[in-house]
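I hope you will forgive my troubling you with a question about protein structure. The matter concerns a single protein, recorded as an amino acid sequence and a row of backbone structure tokens. Please examine both parts with care and let me know of anything in them that strikes you as inconsistent. Here, with my thanks, is the record as I have it:
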Amino acid sequence: MLDKLAEEISQRTKIICDPRSILRVLDAARKSDNIWMIATLAHEPLVLVAEIIRVLADRGILSISKDAISLNSQAIRILEDYGYVEGDHRCECCGGRGVVIDRLPIDVINGYMKAVLRRPKPVQEYDQGFVTYDSALARVAIMDQYGDIRGRRILLIGDDDLLSIAIGLLGRARKITVIEIDRRLTDYISKLSNEYGLEIEVLTRDISEPLPDNMLNEYDTFHTDPPEPLEAIRLFVGRGIAALTKSRGAGYVSLSLIDSSLYKWRDIQSILVSEFKVVITDVIRDFNVYQNWGYLEKMKIWRLLPVKQKTPEGWYRTSLIRIETLRESRGFNEAVREDIYTDTENISR
């Protein structure tokens, strides 16, 4: 039965649906009655999750009301037959991140939390969405843990999370550079840098334009939280790799399973390993938790949902991926003119 359902859903969405995709959605719906959180817990693209729920409701396997999505006895029996049991074994102290932010200096935590209070609001034009303060500080903690901050030259490609400020407050980086297209943010980061005496280099530029020669192979660490169509990944991550030193530089990339399927992840991994010839050293699931943003009802996904429920806090999450460059690694520094924000799985456009 699941094979036929999966084939039907694949045809409807133009996204590959496997029987395991359906099982993950059923398992997630046993843990939450909210479609946004179901997508988060299922770790399947939200566009696909929406159609799975619609088809399962048509078959009477689950029910949809204005306020809740609920399973029936047939759905529970399917989960039991396939060995899915309830439970969450993630660490309660770190939430599975592997670091705790309380070990950062208190002035870093307080200074960062003060900085984000006055930050410009996210806009859909640039696919912006802010992580929670603890997610941003956890990024600093793990980068510091892996030796990628102290004495390092750090490049941030896009910085609506103000990670540059948190790293600057730590006071150990050799150099911090921000490339950001949104002038509201670059003006704000420059202002904070001056107030805090951080000496952050802030560049207002479109990353689709090639990096200048003086930025190539000049950094030890980069961080980016890119849009997730493949060309956007190639652009943002490729620019970061092009900027890194050939002597074992490190990059941090955030990637979801809400805007991307595992099939896209495989393509991304192929780009990283085969095209850019870097090594993936770490993948930490659900490391980044995002605040709700204000333009949700203008997004593509809103039209596709079988039920219009309120978004719970923390429903959108991404994994943190760490890579390292080797001697043969190479980035991507060609100009890009096509749309990088749109594909079948992306929920924004």
About this structure: Residues 101-324 form a domain with the Rossmann fold fold (CATH 3.40.50.150).
